[in-house]
Specification:
With about 150 residues, the protein is an alpha+beta fold. Helices cover about 25% and strands about 25% of the residues. Strands 2-4-3-1-5-6-7 form a 7-stranded mixed β-sheet, sandwiched between helices. α1 packs across α2.
């Protein structure tokens, strides 16, 4: 159920932004390694984490898709308890040498792909005006419209 709601959240953010320039990366996790994330910016004063209401999570993620938002960059993290716990994080993912990408994309796309192999990461979701919402689980690409 948590994974399905994660898919719905990504879809809601993408649908809201259909005609706008935007991009977002979101990670669903059960456990985070402190060595894999690092803040990219100081949180705006009106942001108080964690955010546990899924409608409030969608609203916050929609705000973060705007390129002029100070906390726009990086990946945003949702726990397996459906709480938005970290925003605007550099997500350091090792390259998995024995797996090659069949579809090439930008940095956000590649980070989501490789990040999906990390222990404790359930899924990585990305969306932008350049490609439809996509989810990676263990390097396998999924369509959130089908997965929800």
């Amino acid at each position: 159920m948590v994974y399905q709601r994660f898919c719905e959240i990504l879809i809601e953010v993408a649908e809201y932004n259909k005609s706008k320039h935007y991009g977002i990366g979101v990670v669903l996790y059960s456990k985070l390694s402190p060595n894999s994330i690092s803040p990219l910016s100081i949180l705006e004063k009106d942001i108080h984490l964690p955010i546990s209401n899924d409608h409030a999570i969608v609203d916050m993620l929609i705000k973060l898709t705007r390129s002029n938002h100070p906390n726009h960059d990086g990946f945003h993290f949702i726990s397996n308890e459906l709480s938005l716990t970290h925003i605007s994080q550099y997500f350091s993912t090792p390259i998995v040498n024995n797996r090659s990408m069949q579809i090439y994309g930008g940095s956000r796309y590649r980070t989501a792909y490789y990040g999906s192999f990390l222990d404790g990461i359930i899924a990585c979701g990305i969306a932008s005006d350049n490609y439809k919402p996509t989810i990676f689980k263990q390097g396998i690409k999924y369509d959130p419209y089908i997965e929800r």
